[in-house]
Amino acid sequence: MNKSIAEFAAKLNYQDLPEPVVTIIKHSFIDAIACALFGSTKVWSEMARDVVASENQNGTCIFPSFPKSGLPPSSAALLLGSYCHAFELDNLRFPGAGVHPGAVIMCPLVALAREYGLSGRKLIASAVVGVEALSRLGLATKHSLENRGFHAPGVIGPVGGAIACAAALGANSKQIMNASGIAASMSAGLLAFAKSDGGGMIKRLHLGRSAEAAVRAAQLAMRGFEGPDTAVDGQFGLLEAFCPEFNKIALTEELGSRWESLSICFKTFPAHITAHAPLMATLELLQTCKFSISEIARITIYASKKVVSHHNIKQPHDIMQAQYSVPFCLAAGLVVDLSDPENFNSDLLQNPVLQAILQKIEVFEHDGQAEHSWHARVTITMQDGQVIENDAAQFRGLPNMPMSDYDISRKFHLLTKRVTVPNHLLSDLMKMEDLQTLPGMV
Question: CA of 37: how far to CAs of 40, 78, 245, 441, in Å?
Answer without folding.
Answer: 5, 14, 37, 9
